[in-house]
Amino acid sequence: MMLRALLALAxxxxxxxxxxxxxxxxxxxxxxxxxxxxxxxxxxxxxxxVATGGPAKAVxxxxxxxxxxxxxxxxxxxxxxxTSLKIRNPNxxxxxxxxxxxxxxxxxxxxxxxxxxxxxxxxxxxxYRYMQAIGVGEPCLACHGQSIKPELASVIDARYPDDQAxxxxxxxxxxxxxxxxxxx
Length: 184
Ligand code: HEC
Fold this sequence. Notes:
Elements: H1 2-17, H2 24-73, E1 79-83, H3 96-110, E2 119-124, E3 127-135, H4 141-144, H5 150-159, E4 173-182
Antiparallel strand pairs: 1-4, 2-3, 3-4
The structure holds heme C (HEC).
């Protein structure tokens, strides 16, 4: 009796979803699945550029390749990108909806919530939009940290005169992946 009640509880939410096309949950999963390969290619590209041409070359690589890599990891349905409250490239500036989500992520992170839990999906004006937090790891500090080598800082300054994306520490919230697609 007890067991049957438990089973019924476990099965009900699934049954309620069946038949509804493109639930928010399914859209969240779809969006989230595009992020790891995007993230890996960004990191691999930066690492390779550092290895072959040093940090200055890596900044060039980020500048030239980041938009291309983002375009490639959209799957024709989803658009994929990155944004932040403190941006390096003005092309990555958040729109009003993104800014609101970034601010809520920042508040949740400040309240102690793990960055891995900071995700948010929502229908907005005929599109489904999804964001997921990006944390600062060790490899990011060279270009976004508190003590950027002068040689590298001068390359960043030349390329991004209004750069705000520095001064971060390990584990800080750096920004978010931002994805969107059309929905009926
Ligand atoms: C070699 C230097 C370098 C390293 C290392 C690096 N970045 Fe960046 N990052 C850049 C540059 C340059 C841009 C601007 C790219 C562009 O023009 O689109 C950027 C842009 C970004 C953006 C987009 C928002 C913005 O500010 O324009 C995010 C988010 C970001 N980086 C996060 C990270 C994270 C997280 C790491 C570590 C995993 C990292 N970066 C490592 C140089 C670097």
